[in-house]
């Protein structure tokens, strides 16, 4: 595995840098990203381009707009809009779970949410204890069913340093084209709420994933957004071993 570190200013900047670096690394014989065909998971039989492991340090994630803006002259659909993001926030912050849903991020996040706020207010910020776990050990057994799913977001670790609330998040698998910007925009707004509650300034986000990828059906639009002609096609695999993750 070849880890990649990306340092960005804002969420849109992080998204663009990840796209560029992913495509660039996938073109190198010994690069830190590779193409493979999915055995099981989302879209089995389809190809992905995926980082081996990536850490993304976003210094000013609260700078608006939170979502990437697509230049009009490219004539590409928007990744998402503010209305979609507003509809996403209740999913992220509400403990409610619809019938048939194995989980929601909000259901898992709310288990520890208020405790973390109260703990920081009572004990102060110099502690490593306030880590909110989204994943549960038993989640893996959802995959006994072909249509089973488990949270891609597994962990939201928190730290107050220099008077600012910072979050470190881990995704086991992550759709770079559309999931990355919406997830981070939602998490950033949630972080702002927590920072206000504990009396801290808003801080940075560090996002880590061993499964940040773009799917075959997103490659062409990704190249158009980058305005980059690499001749990349997903017909051939650069990894001789197919994968069994989502």
Fill in the keyword field for this structure:
disordered C terminus, 246 residues, alpha/beta, globular, six-stranded mixed β-sheet, 5 helices, 10 strands, Thymidylate Synthase, Chain A, single chain, four-stranded mixed β-sheet
Descriptive report:
This protein is α/β, with parallel strands linked by helices. 30% of the residues lie in helices and 23% in strands. It is built from five helices and ten strands. The protein has helices at residues 11-26, 82-93, 105-123, 179-198, 219-226, and strands at residues 3-8, 33-37, 47-51, 53-58, 131-133, 153-161, 164-171, 174-175, 201-209, 212-215. A six-stranded mixed β-sheet has the order 1-4-9-7-6-5. A four-stranded mixed β-sheet has the order 2-3-10-8, with helices on one face. The longest helix has 20 residues, at 179-198.
């Amino acid at each position: 595995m070849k880890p990649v570190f990306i340092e960005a200013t804002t969420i849109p900047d992080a998204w663009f840098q990840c796209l560029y670096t992913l495509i660039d690394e996938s073109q190198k014989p010994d690069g830190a990203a590779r193409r493979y065909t999915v055995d099981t998971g989302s879209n089995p039989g389809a190809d992905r381009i995926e980082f081996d492991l990536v850490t993304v340090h976003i210094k000013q994630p609260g700078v608006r707009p939170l979502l990437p803006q697509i230049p009009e002259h490219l004539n590409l659909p928007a990744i998402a809009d503010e209305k979609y993001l507003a509809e996403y926030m209740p999913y992220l912050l509400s403990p409610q779970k619809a019938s048939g849903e194995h989980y929601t991020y909000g259901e898992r996040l709310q288990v520890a949410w208020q405790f973390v706020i109260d703990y920081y207010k009572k004990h102060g910020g110099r502690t490593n204890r306030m880590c909110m776990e989204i994943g549960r050990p038993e989640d893996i057994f959802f995959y006994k069913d072909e249509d089973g799913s488990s949270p891609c977001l597994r962990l939201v670790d928190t730290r107050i340093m220099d008077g600012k609330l910072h979050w470190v998040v881990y995704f086991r698998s992550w759709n770079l084209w559309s999931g990355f910007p919406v997830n981070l925009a939602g998490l950033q707004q949630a972080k702002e709420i927590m920072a206000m509650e504990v009396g801290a300034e808003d801080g940075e986000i560090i996002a880590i994933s061993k499964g940040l990828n773009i799917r075959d059906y997103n490659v062409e639009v990704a190249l158009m957004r980058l305005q980059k002609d690499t001749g990349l096609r997903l017909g051939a695999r650069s990894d001789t071993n197919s994968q069994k993750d989502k």
